[in-house]
Amino acid sequence: MWFSVRTAAIVGLAAGTVVGTQPVFAAPCVGDCNGNRVVQPGELNTSVARILNCQGTATGPCGSTQAPDCTNADKDGNGIINAGEFNNAIFNVLNGCPMEETATPQPSTPTPSATLAATVTSTAMPPPTATPSRTATPAATATTRPAVCGNGVLENGETCARCAADCKVKSCTPTSSVATFFVAFAPPLGESATSVTALVGYRSGGVSIPGTGTGSCQGGSNNGKACSSGTNCPGGQCVQPKSRVKNTPPASFIGVNDLDYAVRVVVTRSNTIAPGRIFSVDFDTCQGAVAPTLADFGCSVEGCATSFGPIDGCTCTVVTP
Question: Partner of 185 at 20 to 30 A CA spacing, among 2, 96, 140, 219?
Answer without folding.
Answer: 96
